[in-house]
Design a protein that fits this description.
- The protein is α+β, with helices and mostly antiparallel strands.
- The chain has a single domain, classed as 3-Layer(aba) Sandwich (Trna Endonuclease, Chain: A, domain 1).
- It has 4 helices and 6 strands, in the order H-E-E-E-H-E-E-H-E-H.
- The strands form 2 sheets. Strands 3-4-5-6 form a 4-stranded mixed sheet. It has a two-stranded antiparallel sheet with strand order 1-2.
- A hairpin with a 5-residue loop joins strand 4 and strand 5.
- The longest helix has 20 residues.
- It starts with a helix and ends with a helix.
């Protein structure tokens, strides 16, 4: 049987490495996520990074991820006063990234979302940080 906590921690380390490779920004796991609510999963070493990241790794699930995942992501982002970003991956599928449509027009409404691949997410981050 798979240990969900170990699977999640390994996924967080993998995504942190991918983000470092793509963006040149180091991330560390936020261990407070296990002790308190409304914390993202990774903490960037650059305060200008515009997102709070929630990472999910599951066998399967719906397109766009679970509704509860997005609510969790938005709560953590609200606490940190950043944009929410949900990065999820199902077994044998590529990673998907969900962000609010508001990043394109400056509106804070997080009900409308855009789902994209990891490379496009990183492109958006680079554009937002320039």
């Amino acid at each position: 049987m798979v240990n969900g906590r170990n699977k999640g921690a390994a996924w967080e380390r993998e995504v942190a490495k991918m983000l470092l490779d793509e963006l040149g920004i180091s991330f560390k796991r936020d261990l407070e996520q296990y002790r308190a609510g409304e914390h993202g999963d990774l903490i960037p070493d650059d305060d200008a990074f515009p997102f709070t990241l929630e990472l999910k790794r599951y066998k399967d699930g719906p397109i766009g991820g679970q509704t509860a995942w997005w609510a969790q992501t938005c709560a953590a982002a609200g606490r940190e006063k950043k944009w929410p970003a949900l990065l999820y991956k199902y077994d044998r599928k590529p990673m998907r990234c969900v962000v609010p449509l508001g990043i394109f027009n400056g509106h804070e409404d997080s009900d409308a979302v855009v789902e994209t691949d990891f490379e496009t997410f990183c492109y958006l981050v680079r554009e937002m940080m320039n």
